Amino acid sequence: MEHGTLYVALFGAGTILVMLGVLRIIQRVRERSLPEDQRANAARRLVAVGEVFSTFAVGASVVKHNVHGESLSADLAWTAAFAALGLAMVQGVGSLSMRTLLRAHLPRELARGNVAAGLAAASHLVATGLLASRAVAGHSLYALGLAMAFFALAMVTHGLFVALFRVLTTYDDAEQIDGENFAAALSYSGVTIAVAVLVARGLEGDFAGWSASLRGYGGVVAWCLALYPVRQLVVEGLLLGARPSLRGGALDRAIGTDRSEGMAALEATAYLGTALAIARLA
């Protein structure tokens, strides 16, 4: 069978539509367990946005790596297997994140419609989707095992870098987000997704043995450290015109005290721009 652009495009569209249908079923089942007044609040809508983004990211990657055009049945089988794995990764880690992130307050904050908490939760789902989309690559049971192993490694790496990076702020992210500080949630989401972009870049490439693959992964992931000078020197010093500092400073006051959503959006944009540039060049 010819492996043409139209064949891949149709396969991609069909795969993503089926995955979205499965996601909608999962969401409907989950909604039925909630009180009626909590089912469609703004915070939960943001969570749904994160889930939809992740589904598109995973679906496109699954088709790219598993559709070869040699056999329709083989393409269907491997696409279904990796698509199911990708959905399970995002839903499983997403569910765990809701129960553990930000001092395990997310379920309570989502229930009361805290939009800042909804944005933070959505950003983790987007990050999880980006990482899962790079992990679900392959065309064999061995590749399936590798996908699970590297996804676990990526999630641990991502969590460590986000936690390390948030130590830079003098305000408490969890406390600010609990207090509906949308600016703090924007900042938190920016670094969460930016780190995911870089870690996901580290997952790309063919498996060349554990030693070589882990060295390559570590070499790319180390670029996450570049987000520190971007925050303290570029955003605070160059873009805001304030005196640069090693920790805290004018940027923290603008977000933690003044709740400036504009400053937070600028910070998040700088993170994402840096991560995308590095991922493109690395």
Structure description:
The protein is mostly helical and 282 residues long. The protein has one domain (5-281). Helices cover 78% and strands 0% of the residues. It contains 12 helices and no strands. It has helices at residues 5-32, 42-66, 72-104, 106-111, 115-135, 141-166, 173-178, 182-203, 210-221, 227-239, 250-257, 261-281. Helix 8 (182-203) packs antiparallel against helix 9. It is globular.
The overall pLDDT average reads 88
Write the element-wise H/E pattern from the N-terminal end onward: HHHHHHHHHHHH
Helical amount: over 70%
Distance between the termini: 35 Å
Class of secondary structure makeup: mainly alpha
DSSP strand tally: 0
Q: What is the quaternary state of this protein?
A: single chain
* Whole-number count of domains: 1
What portion of the residues fall into strands of 2 or more residues? under 5%
Topology:
Layout: H1 5-32, H2 42-66, H3 72-104, H4 106-111, H5 115-135, H6 141-166, H7 173-178, H8 182-203, H9 210-221, H10 227-239, H11 250-257, H12 261-281
Provide the descriptors you would attach to this structure in a database record.
282 residues; mainly alpha; 12 helices; 78% helix
